[in-house]
């Protein structure tokens, strides 16, 4: 309200000005009126006082006396005070004062007019004079004659008042005037506030300038829009018609303000305006135009009548909307292609997605032909353009005679497919009946296609990174409109999007195949020869890329077998290569025949070292996965003689045991930290496995994924293994894979099933040997008898020689001595003692006394070695059996071996020179008597 730029502020300011002016006018008028009243009062009082004194008895006589002033001065002052006037002056006929309030002024000339009074008239005038008791100022004075008895004027009397104190008459009324003005200002403010609030409600707080601009804008928009607007009142009078409504309906210039029936509207529109019903998007004809009409009441709430009608010309909109609909469908097609093509990294599936999206929305029949190299993941070359393989078909494939899926097609040089590959752009064939190049590709098939209704073709190359991958063909039949140039652009856009997805799938196929090939080459390719376990396995690489899952079956001395199952963190080529390094390391540790916990400890150190090398060398940024960061592993050694399996696991899922009766349970192996953390011990567990038990090893990809927890997966695994006691390992693997394999595997799956076997007592011979060299012949004799019982007489010579040499060394360097013979795929000779030293093979010189015993063992045995136990060591040797007899050694003839043996130089008590006995490694000294 205080803002002078607002309407309320301006009205309020105007009201203040009016009130102030009214107050000023009232004050001025009151002052003027008071002054006039004062003068009039002074005139009246002056006349009364003057006439009263002039007519008083003795006045005329006093004027004729010799000293009029002495007589009249006291009377005049007394009369003045009683009358309340400012002065009463008695004058001579010549105008000389006889009296005056101040005696000093007596005798002086009277200031004023006396002529009328000399003629007997009363005169009232305003004039100035000498000072008076009331002060200086304009006087209102009356001059009257004093007559004697004859009526002669003998003197004059003047009485008057000073008018300088007129304000005293109006000052008492000033508070009333000012209070009235203040009340008027307050009323003005209140009224302005109420009016301002109402205006703000109606104008939404807009200023007059903004209201004017708003009106101008609305008026400009109203007449600029391409939609007609009509507003009518309750009486059917046309209140408003914008320019577009005038144009659409042909209204005259003076139509506004006239009844709608008098402006020449078409009858349908006139009926619409006359009816009270609301209308939404109804089409009316007005001349040669089709108008879409909407009608709403102007005041829908208070029912005052009137309506607003909008008119839209849809004559040209039909054609435009048709083109817009086509454009919308094409955009939807491109959007759907962007969302649907390339959802997987499979080349053929991606090609089929393109065909399924384009048919039947864009074409009636779609075929996708790719180079063989693309389907296999290889780099495409121009040499393979003429030979493409049908990868996908979409649409009316059952109605048209097209090449089937997987068919290798040789395209004609003049055909549109070959031309589009050579030119690198799409080609449009509006009428296939005129396309000779397309017809000569396969005349018979082309004729059948034309008879089936095929009419139009758009063929577009599938190109990615400026390399052609194949072609996509879009066909339309006679029942659909032929392709137009605009359709070619859509086809090329579809091909571009699909080509990128197909190329990504091709490159993934190549890399996935390389990784799978590498990983499969690092996994076992066949089952090793061993007697302890019947083994079967499955390996399923992940769809998104291979990981680091691995397993192994490693034969160990003493007919034992080591089972390994591991998982390297990460995926890709780096994980596969790391898995290969760990598998090689496990093989090396297994050859050393270390305990299972030591094997895992050495693997842990190796993973830590590999991880440190990755981070120190900065190689983590150069390959997928970046660093080893850890691995899990389960290492188990099964002894078929004792029927015991020793296991330890480093962060790996616990193995499952299926007993011969079909019961399923966990092996009870304690959990230890994963590999790569360093410094943590690994706990072992020995599990007794009856013959026919199945040991199931697996990686977490089998029992855990994003959709289920590992506990749920373990329960499913137990249910799948239930009742598998009489199944073969192959059958068990297949049952587990069928039950637990996910539809889309996000992680590798490795599964290993091993059914246990045991050595029967009839195929095991074991006895202790007292520590006496003289008993070596008896050991040879017992070996010969055992081999005769087993039907291995032909192996007696080599076996006796090996056992004799090993027992001689064992008696010399350790006790107690135990000999064990195992008959399986090969003949195993084991000699154990309590010594911790290991024999070593060396080539003895001609002058050496010993050093030839282990050489003989190495020549006759297929392989030999040493393993350590908690009570000492075991020296073992294996002889390969062929048809029940040991294979002949091709390394050296018997004569050569006998030449190396010199019995004269044999001295069993002699040690290596300059070495104390406790520091001597056990060496070959058993040049004892030959069998």
UniProtKB/TrEMBL annotation:
GO terms for cellular component: plasma membrane. The lineage of its organism: Bacteria, Bacillati, Actinomycetota, Actinomycetes, Kitasatosporales. Residues 214-254 form the PAS domain. The keyword Nucleotide-binding applies. It comes from the Bacteria. GO terms for molecular function: ATP binding; kinase activity; phosphatase activity. Pfam families: GAF, HATPase_c_2, PAS, sCache_3_2, SpoIIE. Residues 902-931 are annotated as: Disordered. It is found in: Cell membrane. This is Histidine kinase. InterPro entries: Bact_Sigma-Reg, GAF, GAF-like_dom_sf, HATPase_C_sf, HATPase_dom, PAS, PAS-like_dom_sf, PAS_fold.
